[in-house]
Mevalonate kinase (Lutimonas vermicola), 308 residues
Amino acid sequence: MNGPLFYAKILLFGEYGIIKDSKGLAIPYNSYQGALIISEDNSEKAIDSNRKLKAFFQYLKALKDPSINLRLDDLKADIDNNMHFDSSIPQGYGVGSSGAVVAAIYDKYADNKITVLENLTRDKLLKLKAIFSKMESFFHGKSSGLDPLNSYLSLPILINSKDNLEATGIPSQKEGKGAVFLLDSEMIGETQPMVNIFMNKMKNEGFRKMIDRDFARYTDNCIDDFLHGNVTSLFGNVKKLSKVVLKHFKPMIPDSFHQLWQHGIESNDYYLKLCGSGGGGYILGFTEDYEKAKKLLQDYKLELVYRF
């Protein structure tokens, strides 16, 4: 049995801001995907995945939440039959590895599930997000539900606020020189410790004001520019956002990348920002000249996400 594929996701804009109810934009990233599989695979990876699915099943069973209407007996039977999540999505990299698992389980085992073929009203999106939030909390302690939502629908999602979501379209890619790319920090990041740092910082009034005055404003401007194809304005706002993140989110940026981050801002050759919660995993890059950025960053693994 090979289940349907569920893709990774990239939160282009909105990391941390969406916790505080500002805008976000998440897009599917089809370079990585996973599927539920029942097989005779006895590799360490398959055994580990099966073990995690067993623990996830116990969590879902204990939830006893009527809004999560899953056929748990079928899920248990398949897990006992050596089902695992066969995935190329890197874990701890900020691209939604646990979100894809949640989406796959919901897709296969939910009764009366909401599907992408329906008219996806705001109420349906919020209902799905709430279900996914409860399910994915098993992996992160607290989840917005956005990663599984993006993976399940495989559509760009615009977050206007936590109670206002919409599936959206993004401008089609062009064969231009500019690009959005991923830079591999070659470190695994953990979401929970980074979120804890952020929540502690939010106790400081100056930090809260900065989030409202600068971080949320630049994020909102970047999203508007991106969705409307205002590339020149976008790079100006991404630069401002990159500066704010370097100044105020240093603990979320691995130490070895502080100088690289600063160099991008000073040279205007590329701008870096967090991809997810930070602390490792991928760093998101924006450049008006991808070939030049590739040469400057030749010591790092880059992956192309989107062309301008």
Q: What stands out?
A: Residues 179-307 form a domain with the Alpha-Beta Plaits fold (CATH 3.30.70.890).
